[in-house]
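Re-running Putative ABC transport system ATP-binding protein to confirm reproducibility after the cluster update. Everything else is unchanged from the original entry.
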Amino acid sequence: MKPLFEFLDVKYLDVLDLPDLRIDEGRITALVGASGSGKTTVLRMLNKMISPTSGRILFQGRDLAQEDSVTHRRNVVMLSQTPALFGLTVRDNLLAGLRFQDREEPDEQSLTQILEQVRLAKPLQEAADKLSGGERQRLALGRVLLMKPRVYLLDEPSSALDEETAQLIFEMLTSHARADGSTIVMVTHSKAAARNHADVIIEMSGGTCLNKGCSL
Ligand SMILES: Nc1ncnc2c1ncn2[C@@H]1O[C@H](COP(=O)(O)OP(=O)(O)OP(=O)(O)O)[C@@H](O)[C@H]1O
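Result of re-run:
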């Protein structure tokens, strides 16, 4: 397995202490652990929203500190726990992630297919602020899928979903990632989801990783 991210003696304030954490390319990694154990902070580091206060993170063998943040975030896209709405309609929200990408606007059919993929049965012209929490979560996931990133950082992507929809979404995400070789790092409170869908489970506690050596 090729390492995509490698943490070398990384510390972040008194929040994280990760001597040796590795995330492999093309795999599905689940970050599990109690509330406040540092899971979201790890995702934010992978996305370069925050940087280590000491130590280094390598991305594809290069120091992440040297990478351009905007370019990095085109490849490594984070879906937060409470995604924001963009613009007025479902369509506006799907297209929002492509604004800064040099790509042709997807046609109606592609947008409708994405909605089917995320199990959101709403018309493209529907007002986004009318959607429920779980529907917004799936809409935001659709926005991220359209961006076709190499790495998906998903912060509790199923927190607002019922069990059946969550299961369908995890299945869609994993088959999508396996088909195009993308990498997923997802935070989840569901140990069952982690066991059923992830290749690697990283267990966090008190800002560190409990796995032996943290290099799986
Ligand atoms: N910039 C910061 N300064 C100080 N403390 C911080 C900072 N960022 C995060 N923390 C603290 O670090 C701890 C870990 O936060 P984090 O959001 O990573 O936890 P989590 O495991 O994702 O929790 P949850 O499952 O509840 O979302 C928390 O106690 C949080 O308050």
